[in-house]
Amino acid sequence: MATGNILLIDDEEKLRALLKRIISLEGFSIHEANNLKAANKVLEKENIQVVLCDVKLPDGNGVDFTLQVKTKFPSVEIILLTAYGNIADGVQAIKNGAFDYIIKGDDNDKIIPLLNRAMEKLQMQKRIAHLEKQISKQYSFENILGESSLIKEAITLAKKVAPSDATVLLLGETGTGKEVFAQSIHNASRRNGKPFLALNCSAFGKELLESEIFGHKAGAFTGAVKDKKGLIEEADGGTLFLDEIGEMHIELQSKLLRVLETNEFIKVGDTKSTKVDVRIVAATNRDLQQEVNDGRFREDLFYRLNVFSIHLPALRERKKDIPLLAEFFMKGFAQKANHQIEAMSKEFLEHLQQHEWKGNIRELKNVMERAVILADNNQLNVSNLPIELQTTNYKPQTLSAFDLASVEKLHIQRVLNHTKGNKTEAAKLLNIGLTTLYRKIEEYGIVT
């Protein structure tokens, strides 16, 4: 049986009674109104999903009423009923947001299928809204894991730039989470209701990359049988993330520069400009200044992209975050595989922290997925790691009373405990610079 709240609006009592009987037999809850004033009161009071409304009413017109309802209650679907249908009214009704426009009496057998379709559309919209909410939550600054000063600094900078329309350049090695940062910047901006599109510039040759970004007109080249929008146009109003921007061919760089300077571009094979309102977030693992010096990257584009740059630290620069990230991946993969895994052994974590992680977070994620798959009990052990992580220069982490680094680590920890985590005060007591203190905290993995 169908469920949902339906509002019937018609000044003909007999017709309302007939429709009520037909619709209620399908399990819908029915509310009634004989004019638009009464209908507005019902809409304010009840959680109405679908409105069945006559076009001609004593105090107004259903076509105009549709626009009013969709403006105030955008999720409500409206089906208009008319005794004398005409094309002009039907067209205007649909323009105003009506779900459908049908003839009274003759089309009673269409009402139930229409109501069911309207309810299906509402359920689909709810599911989409829920998914969008989940995605927004997934790609938020709150979900970027890390307690190290370097990642916290990157998050702080990203939060500050997100509300603006400034171009952002994300710098860092492959696998450091540049796309996650780009998506989080988009979600924290005024553009979050618009598209976020991503493209890896290293995945395409020059001609194909140009078509992917800027689009093309039919006949522009062999195989271009119809017009195609590029990602820069598809992302209009939103954000375009260009990963590995350092790989972009220098001839295409001038077209991207024009977008940044004028908000205009020309499609491949076109003769006129197309206007766009799009924010560019770019990322690279290359040294773009060196690329400029070597003549492989336009200097003017570099300065346009480098309005606001954020460095994302490599995993080896934030080793104190490895246990936190490893636990997050462990729980996620364990749930996905339906494994009861609750912990990681001390030796397992020590092996993780001594690895260089050239593939950064992406490599750690892959290692944790493999470990979960191989686990035989509720704890991850060294035997669950790849061979190279089991054997590579492993030395158990021990403190020696005579080791200078160990003494220094212990002393810094005591001073930080004394200042209750106040790093500025701790640096003064230690008679070292604040930057030096942060570096030593990172180096020794000191918990603050």
Structure characterization notes:
It is a single chain. The protein has about 450 residues and is α/β, with parallel strands linked by helices. It has 4 domains: about 5-135, Rossmann fold (3-Layer(aba) Sandwich), CATH 3.40.50.2300; about 145-315, P-loop containing nucleotide triphosphate hydrolases (Rossmann fold), CATH 3.40.50; about 315-390, Helicase, Ruva Protein, domain 3, CATH 1.10.8.60; about 405-445, Homeodomain-like (Arc Repressor Mutant, subunit A, Orthogonal Bundle), CATH 1.10.10.60. The protein is about 50% helix and about 15% strand. The chain has 19 helices and 18 strands. The strands form 6 sheets. Strands 2-1-3-6-7 form a 5-stranded parallel beta sheet, sandwiched between helices. Strands 9-12-15-8-16 form a 5-stranded parallel beta sheet. Helix 17 (about 405-420) crosses helix 18. The longest helix has about 30 residues, at about 110-140. It starts with a strand and ends with a helix.
**Got a strand count?**
18
Number of helices: 19
Classify the beta-strand content into a percent band: 5-15%
Structural class: alpha/beta
Summed up, the domain count is 4
What general outline do the C-alpha atoms trace?
extended
Q: What is the architecture of the largest domain at the second tier of CATH?
A: 3-Layer(aba) Sandwich
- Overall pLDDT, averaged? 87
Distance from N terminus to C terminus (CA atoms, Å) equals 59 Å
